[in-house]
Amino acid sequence: MLDSSLPLSSEAAARQEAGTVLLRRGDSVDRIVHVMQGRVVLGVMTQGEISHQLGVVEGPFWLEAASGLLGLPHAVDAVAETDVQLQYVSVADFVAQVQALPEVSQNLLMDMARSQRQQTELGVSRLAKDADARCAEWLLRHAEPDALAGGLAVKLTERKRTIAAQLGIAPETFSRVLRHLRERQLISGAGRVLGLPNPQALRDLAGV
């Protein structure tokens, strides 16, 4: 549905050498990068190098298009593994092309973008964060306003074993982390509803 015939920005095309950092995790998205040729490593960088690899993609491929569609910062770092040939499309032009598609196609693309973003965030979390940070991030992602008590709360609609599997940790580890968070007064309550009395402390722990 989307290809390299999309309108290009003033930086129409470029060739980058192997080792060039193409995207940085956390940076805002002002353009979508289309890899025409070459291979790109996706993952998490430490001290200028990919320390945790999430995967490798090969052109033709749109890098982090989901983040651009959703208006979110980049979820991963991207480094050219080989020399690459790139095209750039402004986010505005990219979104306009999507909005020109039939409504059914738009909805499908946005659903796929949200799913890809969620899976990417989960993959990065498993690679680069310890169990406490993963759990804190999960709690923040599932938090909702608590009309009765005020603040934020999380309803555990799934079994703890299922949640632990999503986080890539053992159920016993998940229970231990929740106990530690409760001892540190970062969560409150018991049963199926957990209060979040200090969201900022959870954000600091999660690194978000």
Features:
208 residues; 27% strand; 4-stranded antiparallel beta sheet; 7 helices; alpha+beta; disordered N terminus
Description:
- There is one protein chain.
- The protein is of the alpha+beta class.
- It is built from 7 helices and 11 strands.
- It has helices spanning 65-70, 91-99, 103-128, 131-141, 160-167, 171-183, 199-206; strands spanning 13-16, 21-23, 31-37, 39-46, 49-58, 61-63, 77-80, 84-90, 144-145, 152-155, 193-196.
- The strands form 3 sheets. Strands 1-8-3-6 form a 4-stranded antiparallel beta sheet. The protein has a 4-stranded antiparallel beta sheet with strand order 2-7-4-5, covered by helices on one side.
- The longest helix is centred in the middle third of the chain and has 26 residues, at 103-128.
- Residues 3-10 have low confidence and may be disordered.
Annotate the secondary structure layout:
Elements: E1 13-16, E2 21-23, E3 31-37, E4 39-46, E5 49-58, E6 61-63, H1 65-70, E7 77-80, E8 84-90, H2 91-99, H3 103-128, H4 131-141, E9 144-145, E10 152-155, H5 160-167, H6 171-183, E11 193-196, H7 199-206
Antiparallel strand pairs: 1-8, 2-7, 3-6, 3-8, 4-5, 4-7, 9-10, 10-11
Helix pairs in contact: 4-7, 5-6
